[in-house]
Write a structure and sequence with these properties.
The structure holds 2 protein chains of 2 kinds. By secondary structure, chain A is of the alpha+beta class. Chain A contains 31 helices and 30 strands. Helix content of chain A is 44%, strand content 23%. Chain B is built from 3 helices and 13 strands, in the order βββββββαββββαββα. In chain B, the strands form 3 sheets. Chain B has a 6-stranded mixed sheet. Classes of the chains: A alpha+beta, B mainly beta.
């Protein structure tokens, strides 16, 4: 089969089926020569083969079927009567077609099969000069060639070149696999091929082929003996024919439901396998051990095999996108080139269906809003033709599909502003978010409004629907964009729905499964490290993951259970959901395991925290955490603070409570003094080695992530006397409008909720007042003053004219 | 309540009395019954996986031959005290609308033929939430059989 085009292969499979049908039909026809129904069925079969062979350029095949078709149409119309002699030539035609197909299968071409004799015989039979030509049989060469035959043979040949351009377009359609539904498309694809037959008649005739085919096979055994002959001959001529399994015999059509059932059973088998493997692991019976290892292997292979039966290349849904892009592009007067990479990437049929609409939506979005009109592109120094790239690849058990354009990109600042305007985010929360996180806001439901289209280059339309659809199949979506350079939407889709790779964790003595699709990494901190690395507080725990503040969510808190981890170790599963990263603190990480997702009852679904349940290797039931829901539940408090409050109270009250309920970062500045800094203004906590601090003029700066960061030492700024010579400086980074400063403190103590704070006014330089926080008097830092001390131009100068000597814009700090 | 039902009568309170077979079980000293056709199987005590944040009557999830089934603690549902330490619950798996749910009870008893003529509305001694879940009582020899409304009982 190698070397054979998909289309040809499919053509062969179908034609073989049709021919079996034809044999039985023809024989049955002899019994009831006047059955128009049978004649029509035979006619359609031959017609389909003729049409397809026409555009596949199998000219001899087309020639034979063409004369056959002519005769059949006259028989059908009653212009000819079916005599045994005519039946004979028709059967001979079928045999010849078979011989041709066998040759095509074996060598890819029509080989040396001679068709002229049959063509002559059929023509003769049609011309009612039967007895002479019919018995002439295969032995006779192409001596008898009435002019009529030539004419008939030429007609299709002429038609062939004209069809060539149509072929490529049709080819994609026809490249679909053997699923029954696809037959329609092929039958239709055949339409453009044959020239002589009136189009009306064609459409009418071709379409009914679909439900027609399956007729009891047993009749096929009645096939006259000669049928075997050409088949036996052809492979001999091609040499390696015997070793090759015939295409038609190597594929069968299977009901998808049956595959679903198999998939389910394999899922169960995998579970049982897991149980046995675990059980055997505890015994020392070597024979049993060996047997279970084999079982392990075989079950895995079986699972893979069954999964493969449901796999289809993503090209199935991509193939209709060029048209979408072309149509929409010309409608919008944009010239767009569509590129596809990894179109052979396979994924589960069900998932493929589920991804189709979201993907189309993303492509439309890119064409509509991503890629700019030609003149805008030229003005921006880009080629006039926009490029839309679809990429698909397998990546750690998932399929990653990207829709990338080289358009205008999305401006995080605009998205952020929009989010604030819509009340989806507080300005403070926005200031702390990285541009990458801000971009993900386009997937929020409130974002998809008409106004957003113009303001945020339109990416908001229906994006929440796309996201919902992708998440419904256990996938995830994220967007990356570079202003002016383009946008990439990345879908991560599980390979299959039924079996999911998951991480099992322990929390309060129970095990839970976390689908690996949302897992990014695991961080384990021993007690000593955890004390420093995790800022422990009610509700606002953070961990500095490579310099970025990672909000922590304790699973025990979410589940309202007591943790049974008392040794101070902290195990963090870094998860990504809702476009944001957060750390889920669990008691222990147990294992990675392939789990079969089982639905849970209605009452448990309502809790909105569990995606389902599964049976683990040892037979116990474990709940599967819904990471998306978890993120929404745990992180909502932070992002939607303002929205909730304004619901509860009037706007004024909300404003007041916001100032009062601020979260504060507590820091020691030496001399026993404690300073509170509103957490909203903190971008990041860092540690900086003292030796890296440099002087610029009379100011201290430090190189930080390739930028120059002005420093203010809070102890000096506030007149406290801390230890001066420390090796490592604790630094609070504050960023606003692309500029950043570093505030040096002696030690970061805690994060507290400022709600209960009692304030007293003290008029001291650099302070707003003092409050009792955590039973101690704490000074409230005037952040503005502190920042101005480090960078006098911080609030006035635009970022571009930053006074830092390097002159690099400050925005690179926000990562 | 379909196949085994002989006839139905309605008493003053609007409660439908039925004749048929009830599978009976004991719970905190009382005898309860549910329609035998709802019962799929009865199992010995199973390992339960608790479900945090679930309604209190949800005792957890059990593994029923690879199927995950929710278990309802009927004592909790009926407002009875928790089962004494050291005694194992018996699991009655019922099938409602094609979905399997299980009930945790103290012990299983016989299948009893009941007659609608013996049926009475829930005794006044029943209180609160239990009253909603009990369709009524059949007067048997020497004791009362409380007919449990399975539908309501599992919709914890």
């Amino acid at each position: 089969m190698d070397g054979l085009d998909d289309i040809v292969e499919e053509f062969l499979v179908e034609s073989h089926e049709n021919l079996d049908q034809l044999d039985s039909d023809l024989v049955a026809l002899e019994q009831e020569p006047n059955s128009r129904e049978r004649l029509s069925s035979i006619f359609r079969t031959i017609h389909t083969i003729k049409g397809t062979s026409g555009f596949l350029a199998f000219n001899r095949l087309e020639e034979v079927t063409h004369v056959g078709e002519n005769m059949l149409s006259r028989l059908r119309d009653g212009a000819l009567d079916l005599t045994p002699a005519r039946t004979d030539v028709l059967l001979r035609m079928v045999d010849t077609v078979r011989a041709l197909l066998t040759s095509i299968e074996a060598s890819g071409g029509e080989g040396s099969v001679d068709v002229s004799a049959v063509v002559a015989a059929i023509s003769a039979a049609m011309e009612d000069t039967p007895a002479a030509a019919a018995p002439a049989t295969p032995a006779e060469p192409a001596a008898v060639k009435p002019a009529a035959v030539k004419a008939a043979a030429k007609a299709p040949a002429k038609a062939a070149p004209a069809k060539a351009p149509a072929r490529t377009a049709v080819a994609k359609k026809a490249a679909t696999p053997k699923a029954p539904a696809k037959r329609t498309s092929r039958a239709k694809a055949a339409i453009p091929a044959p020239a002589p037959v009136p189009v009306d008649e064609l459409i009418e005739e071709v379409t009914p082929v679909v439900p027609e085919t399956p007729e009891p096979a047993p009749v096929a055994e009645a096939t006259p003996a000669p049928a075997e002959q050409p088949e036996a001959d052809a492979p001999a001529g091609t040499g390696d024919g015997q070793t090759r399994r015939a295409v038609a015999d190597s594929t069968i059509r299977v009901d998808v439901d049956l595959l679903d059932e198999l998939m389910l059973l394999v899922g169960e088998l995998v579970l049982t396998r897991n149980q046995i493997v675990q059980y055997v692991g505890r015994s020392n019976d070597t024979d049993l051990l060996r047997a279970s290892q084999r079982l392990n292997l075989i079950a895995s292979e079986l699972q893979e095999g069954v999964m493969k039966t449901r796999m289809q290349p993503i090209d199935h849904i991509w193939s209709k996108l060029p048209r979408v892009v072309r149509d929409l592009g010309s409608q919008l007067k944009k010239s767009i080139r569509l590129e596809m990479e990894g179109r052979e990437t396979e994924l589960d049929k069900t998932l493929l269906e589920a991804v189709k609409d979201p993907l189309t939506h993303l492509v439309r979005n890119s064409v509509d809003h991503g890629i700019e009109p030609a003149d805008t592109r030229k003005a921006a120094g880009k080629p006039a033709e926009g490029v839309l790239t679809l990429r698909a690849r397998h990546e750690s058990g998932q399929v990653v599909v990207e829709v990338a354009d080289d358009g205008a990109g999305i401006d995080p600042a605009k998205v952020g502003a929009k989010a604030v305007e819509r009340g989806l985010l507080t300005p403070d929360a926005l200031a702390r978010m990285s541009p990458q996180d801000i971009l993900q806001m386009i997937f929020l439901p409130g974002f998809s409004t008409a106004a957003a289209v113009t303001n945020v280059s339109g990416r908001g339309v229906g994006m929440d629907v796309v996201k919902t659809n992708i998440e419904a199949i256990g996938g995830s979506i994220e967007v990356e964009s570079e202003t002016g350079r383009g946008t990439v939407c990345r879908l991560r889709i599980p390979l299959t729905l039924a079996i999911v790779p998951a991480l099992t964790v322990e929390c309060a003595g129970d095990r839970y499964a976390i689908p690996q699709i949302s897992l990014q990494e695991l961080v384990s901190l021993d007690a000593e490290k955890a004390v420093n690395a995790v800022e422990e507080v009610g509700g606002a725990q953070v961990y500095r993951l490579r310099g970025e503040l990672l909000p922590l969510v304790r699973l025990t808190d979410v589940l309202e259970l007591p943790s049974d981890r008392h040794d101070g170790h902290v195990v963090i599963a870094v998860l990504r959901a809702e476009g944001r990263r957060f750390g889920l603190v669990v008691d222990r990480v147990i294992n990675t395991e392939e789990i079969v997702v089982k639905a849970v009852g209605g009452q448990l679904k309502q809790i909105g925290l569990y995606q389902g349940a599964t049976v683990l290797g040892d037979g116990t039931v474990a709940l599967i955490l819904d990471v998306q829901a978890l993120a929404r539940r745990a992180l909502r408090a932070e992002t939607n603070e303002r929205g909730q409050e304004s619901n509860r109270d009037a706007a004024a009250a909300a404003a007041r409570s916001e100032t009062e309920r601020q979260r504060m970062l507590l820091a020691a500045i030496g001399g026993g003094r404690r300073v509170a800094i509103p957490l909203d203004t903190v971008t990041r906590l860092e540690q900086v080695r003292t030796e890296t601090v440099e002087k610029v003029g009379n100011r201290e700066v430090v190189q930080y992530r390739g930028a120059i960061l002005p420093i203010v030492r809070l102890d000096r700024h506030l007149g406290a006397y801390g230890e001066t010579e420390r090796e490592v400086l604790e630094v609070i980074v504050y960023s606003d409008h692309g500029r950043s400063v570093a505030i040096v403190v002696e030690e970061i103590l805690d994060i507290v909720d400022g709600e209960a704070a009692v304030r007293s006014d003290i008029d001291d330089m650099g302070l707003l007042g003092s409050a009792v926080l955590g039973d101690k008097v704490t000074e409230l830092l005037d952040v503005r003053a502190a920042i101005l001390a480090a960078d006098p131009a911080f609030y006035s100068a635009p970022a571009a004219s930053h006074e830092t000597p390097s002159g690099v814009p400050g925005s690179f700090l926000e990562v | 309540m379909t196949s085994a039902t002989d006839f139905k009568t309605t008493d003053g309170t609007g409660v439908v009395a039925t004749s048929g077979q009830l599978a009976t079980f004991r719970l905190d000293g009382d005898l309860y019954g549910i329609e035998v056709e709802h019962v799929q199987e009865v199992l010995k005590s199973q390992g339960l996986t608790r479900v945090p944040l679930a309604p209190s009557a949800v005792a957890g999830l059990i593994n029923l031959r690879g199927q995950v089934v929710t278990a309802i603690e009927l004592r909790e549902r009926l407002g009875r005290p928790p089962r004494p330490e050291g005694t194992d619950a018996v699991v009655i798996v019922v099938r409602l609308h094609g979905e399997a749910v299980s009930l945790l009870v103290d012990s299983i008893a016989d299948v009893v033929d009941v007659d609608a003529a013996d049926f009475e509305a829930p005794p006044d001694t029943l209180e609160g939430q239990a009253r909603d879940l009990i369709r009524g009582a059949y007067k048997l020899d020497g004791q009362l059989l409380l007919a449990l409304d399975v539908q309501k009982a599992v919709s914890a």
